[in-house]
Batch of 2 targets.
Target 1
Amino acid sequence: MKYKLIELKKENDLNRILRKQKREKGEISILFTSLWDKYSKAMVGRIKSKYKNSDSGIPLYLVDSYNMPHSFVIFNSSRVPHLVTIQKNRVLSEEYLPLIYKLLELE
C-alpha cells in the first residue's frame, strides 16, 4: 500500500479532514506521535524517508502531541505511536508498534 504523507500543524486542519472524510467516505490514516518519544521519532524518520516524495496513495496524516494536544482526545489516544485508519464506516485503531510498522510497510 502506498501512502501520501501530510504533516498537520493545527487542530482545525484535522477537524476539517475528518468532516470531509465523513462526507466522502474515503480512506485515510492518522498517525499520532510525540516529539519526545524515541519510538515515535524513529518511526517518523523512516516514514519521511520512504513516503516524502509520494504524490499518490492513501493520505497519511502525521499529528504530534506538541502542536495538537487536543486531537489525541478524538480517538482516545493515550499511547504513542498510535495509528488510526478510517475506512468508509469503519475505524481501525492500532497501538502495537510492530503491527504499525507492518501496516505502514516500514519493515
Target 2
Amino acid sequence: MRKVLHLENKTTSEHKYYGSLVALWKDNEAIPYHTIKRLDLSSGWENETFKIRVGSLLTPADVKDGKNNG
C-alpha cells in the first residue's frame, strides 16, 4: 500500500491528493515545509484554511489479499 495525502482548501473547497509531503508543499507553498514536516499527520491536521488527511491507496493486490477488508 502507498500513503496518500488529501488536502482540502477550505477557502476554495478544492480537494487535491498527493503521494508525498514534498509534492503537497511544492503545490501549496502557503504551508511552510518545516511546519508540514514536523506535524503528526496520523490523526490528520487542520487550521483555518487547510485540512490534511492521510490515507492508503489500495491496489488490486491489496484488495485481493484481504489486507484491508475491514
